[in-house]
């Protein structure tokens, strides 16, 4: 399934605030969505175990889980909302029963980034569907477990704590785009400004990719200072018009250039659950190399407008891994077919799999044979006096 | 004849004056306490090293007590016999205006640093001699006074020496306060004759309930203790009868902002009357003489200040609002959030300074005062551009006087943050200084030079 564009309708971009390497771009909603409200339950810093439907244990850092409270008849829902909807069966449920019991029944709890990150890792978690002989027994039987990806908490990203602390929240603000070294680190949108105010401090507990962690160390962000063309001004009214023009230009530039990578249609969207007029789904990028790859989750309303959004930016290495996995999956986990599509030899594909950290998926003897082939071919080329292949 | 060096000197001194007015070495919204102290210490060293004579003269300006104490400590460390040693009179004058606990803290710092030259001892001796009631100090600031007396090699006369160094040698004291202190050790009734801070300790020792204690100690409270305890005492059913209108303007504004919105609404008449009265007192004879004034006042989130300086920048803005209303013939105050009721001011939202300045300039006032920490972020730099274009294009003759007052010292830039080069920026601490600051801002505009600045400083110093 290919997805449609993420619809930012109803959200307006306001001037960014910078701090160190970070640029924070507020998104403001003129008409907040009243019948969908989110609430954060901060469970503490310890890693928690989440039981997935397929009964595989999945270890990750889950700083907070969210509770969606929602009314179907359109009446405003407070953050401690009215009852509706059934607890979701196929969304991860916390193992900690005592904590879970404290939450009122009838509200959907979901783990924000978990859902999407799990989607990425479990992309083809079942492992090879056809037991081609190259795949190791472990890969066929257990898939890619343990499914873990590296991510940093916001507290580890340099300057993020101060940046969030000194950020001045706009009236009506419902979202925030966070840039590190002017690359989009994460996007966060909620339905209602009050939700945003409650959740703003929790951004420090979110997960960020290693790319963001590193960019925050090195690249300082500069303000886009307002510039007024003196010659165009003859009255205070002109001054005001110029100021407004600048604001429009900034919003236009931001939406069309800076956030372009996010606004592009995601490669695949999976609907996880439906509640009244709202749909919870997660999306995966195309895993194109050398481009922005965001995965995330959304809640959209009946018209497809965005009510909730949370994204995670993949690093280059993570994109590469996703690329390999999706290529393999597209060809039923057949090594020769995949290698042909990628226009490389099978031994080369095996080497790439190994470099990406999936080496243990192939049978040891097969892997050794591929390695030998690769070495011999290189040696033969060299002995013939030809130059070594271009890197 | 102005030289380049003169210009730099003029700028440096103004920069230092601004820093010394605003920074208290405490945490601010954008910088930690350590950063503030480091930045301020550098500035002090720089000015002290380059302009030793002017460094002392800045004591005559309305700089805050924290910086005054730093300057005095630096001057005394240098010792006598060097240029600028004729500043003893200025030091004595400044010490007399500082709060006693701060002076005692300065003396203790000098003791820790091992500064014990003849000049230092003389200054301590003279300051102690000028105290109205040393027995009171001996009770209230016991250990501090003891340390100062030791450090200055003084021999207190009569029973005071005994009181400090061997308090139980005497069976009774002649001075009533000292005698009360002795009796308070075993007599519950005697402690109500002592200052509040000392009595509090004895009350805890005797196990007196808070409500009873507050009720009986109320007449002994100082003006500020009264204000500070108002809320806590009312919970216990005791009214401290704080006289709001007698408070300094910014202090009163801080108090008002510390109240919950519904309390402010309920006590509106009382609070507004107190603010107006304090503003009228600060304006004095100048009330109503400033003509058409507009103000852009910052109530963005950054005006919260920090947990140690709660809502200080906002309190300064609120105080300026009432003072300017008293000073001006016709006045228009514009809050950044668009709020029209200053009594309900709350630090929230971004800082769209540029747009509000356009709003204010459209009315063509004779004076525009901007009270803000200068973190213009919605969009960044618009305020500077608006002011620049206004001065260049729309008002080249300068009919509209514009002054930016900044209550926050920016540690990173080592000065108060500016909005534009064409508009003078001055640090502000107490709203009462506003008229003097608008005066001082003249120098920053570059129209008046170093000679005038020196004359101004010397004049201020001589008047002290």
UniProtKB/TrEMBL annotation, chain A:
Residues 7-276 form the ARG and Rhodanese-Phosphatase-superfamily-associated domain. InterPro entries: ARPP-2 (IPR054346). It holds the Pfam family ARPP-2. It comes from the Bacteria. This is ARG and Rhodanese-Phosphatase-superfamily-associated domain-containing protein.
Automatic annotation (TrEMBL), chain B:
It comes from the Bacteria. This is VWA domain-containing protein. It comes from [Actinomadura] parvosata subsp. kistnae.
